[in-house]
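Example record

The entry below shows one chain as it appears in the dataset: sequence first, then structure tokens.
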Amino acid sequence: MIIPADIQVLAVVVVRDGELPAGAEETVAEAGGAALVAGSGTSEAAGRLVSARRVWLHERSGVAPGALAGALTHVVARVDMVLLPASPDGRDLAPRLAASLDRVLLAGAVRCAPDEVELTRLDDRLSLRVAVDGPVVVTVRPAGRGKAEPAPAADVTMVSAPGEPEAGPDAESVAVLQPEPAAADLAEARRIVGGGGGLVPAGGDGVAVMRLLAAVAAALEASTGATRVVTDAGWMSYDRQIGTTGVAVNPELYVAFGISGAAQHISGLGTPEHVVSVNTDPSCPMTLMADLGILADAPAVLAELAGRLGVTAPPTSRPVEASHAR
């Protein structure tokens, strides 16, 4: 089957065992709700795409990029703009699919339009607007759009790839290891411990406080996040910032230390299953939305928790950063 000619922009999302990769929701939203989900557990994964309007499923046990590109080339050949989330599998598949389709690859997009794609370079310090005058393949960076708007129930169609080409040299998966919480992509984190400006006392060492927060988060097998106040102050790196100008997340558990809950922060928070707020203000938005609100001094609670967990902050003056290991 070939994707219909009326679909000009299509998101291609590679899944393993029904798990959506980071940036899948935003990529589908950028494609106007049209998505091709390929891999294992596609039906389960597609059911969690709230922004999807039309979905095609290509179920297969392996997602080796060369073989998958060969299988999908004929299927997406008539689509002018093919978008993939810039997840590990998306970044592996995109160049092979672009080569197979004989079209340009634009990597690291934050905005896509039929006639223009906006890319970022140099750690987001440089924005490039590239004119599009022909078919392209694009990888979309996570957290470029913020929270996706839900769509009505999607129309789902199964896709079989006709006559896959004979397999040649390809990447082979030896094992898939779960990342350490501290090094995981924040958009994929199941547990997040967040720090806000209220966590740092007046005149306090913000970097040291955030290092302690990261150590506590590691002990809880959670990732570390922050508000824009924290990252603008240089206490934590920008890839840990949650919100409309940072990373869009959707954890199972979010623990907020000294975070009042500004709209810009909450809008990137998704819909956590459980929220714990540590704040002295009983009427701040974060406490009001919390399942458990602890009305106490956030630095004191963090210090007490660290003591009970037996952790201390690493001795360094650099802001908290995430490893970018794949």
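Notes for this example: The radius of gyration is 21 Å. The domain at 186-309 is CATH 3.40.50.1220 (Rossmann fold).
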